[in-house]
């Protein structure tokens, strides 16, 4: 399946002095300013904050889809200079191909992995569909799937290429509460089983505390890190638990205080 997932001590992501300025019609817009962040191998880090605080911009810079105006992003000491198979992005919209069935969508990204035969790609795709509970829907058409099932397919496709870092940009934001809660359990299970590094963007404080080992709080205009929180609650976590609610309420209060 290509490169192995990072073990302890590897796959360290270093973000140093990253700022991002966009040129708009009304002049320059400073999206990020002086972001410094180290992410350990196997860590689940959630980036939270209000709209416009630069969370997605930072995720895109880590993915190599955008470049910082200043500062550097390094993966195991190597500068990130563009997209790569070591990093995969999962977006809020599933972005599936409607002309392919479920299996075909998961196999699609594997075409970029050198040395894989079609039968090998199929075996990897089937294994990852089983991982997300869709082994019985391999030949279903995309229009036949619910929103939650589409996101499961997108997750299986993201995992199939065996990325070193999974980047998730509000992937559950458009789903109903019951579907989200099931996916929270699924992604926690996958993280615990694989130990992969996950960076997860959300504006939902409870979601961040439910999933993350660490929660990074951003404030906007420009986007800056104002606080970090270690989440020491045991997994699997229930988003409706009292302990989780208390910590998410504290983060929300801190954000409101920082915005004043």
UniProtKB/TrEMBL annotation:
Record's keyword terms, sorted: ATP-binding, Nucleotide-binding, Transport
Top-rank taxon, per record: Bacteria
Protein name as it appears in the record: Nitrate/sulfonate/bicarbonate ABC transporter ATP-binding protein
ABC transporter domain residues: 13-247
Presence of keyword Thylakoid: no
One Pfam family of this chain: ABC_tran
InterPro entries for this protein: AAA+_ATPase (IPR003593), ABC_transporter-like_ATP-bd (IPR003439), ABC_transporter-like_CS (IPR017871), ABC_transporter_ATP-bind (IPR050166), P-loop_NTPase (IPR027417)
SUPFAM superfamilies, sorted: P-loop containing nucleoside triphosphate hydrolases (SSF52540)
GO MF entries: ATP binding
């Amino acid at each position: 399946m290509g490169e192995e997932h990072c073990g302890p001590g590897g796959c360290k992501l270093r973000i140093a002095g990253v700022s991002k300025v966009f040129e708009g019609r009304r002049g320059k817009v400073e999206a990020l300013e002086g972001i410094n962040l180290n992410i350990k191998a196997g860590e689940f880090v959630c980036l939270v904050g209000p709209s416009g605080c630069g969370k997605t911009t930072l995720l895109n810079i880590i993915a190599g889809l955008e470049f910082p105006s200043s500062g550097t992003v390094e993966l195991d000491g190597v500068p990130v200079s563009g997209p790569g198979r070591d990093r995969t992005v999962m977006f809020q919209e599933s972005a599936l191909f409607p002309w392919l069935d479920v299996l075909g969508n998961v196999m699609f990204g594997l075409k970029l992995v050198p040395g894989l035969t079609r039968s090998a790609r199929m075996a990897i795709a089937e294994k990852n569909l089983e991982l997300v509970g869709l082994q019985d829907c391999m030949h279903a058409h995309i229009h036949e799937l619910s929103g939650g099932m589409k996101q499961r397919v997108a997750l299986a496709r993201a995992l199939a290429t065996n990325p070193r870092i999974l980047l998730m940009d509000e992937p559950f934001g458009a789903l109903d509460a019951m579907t989200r809660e099931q996916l929270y359990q699924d992604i926690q299970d996958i993280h615990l089983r694989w130990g992969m590094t996950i960076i997860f963007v959300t504006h939902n404080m409870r979601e961040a505390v439910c999933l993350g080992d660490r929660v990074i709080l951003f404030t906007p205009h420009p986007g800056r890190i104002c606080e970090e929180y270690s989440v020491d609650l045991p997994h699997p976590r229930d988003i409706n638990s009292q302990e989780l609610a208390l910590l998410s309420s504290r983060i929300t209060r801190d954000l409101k205080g920082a915005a004043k």
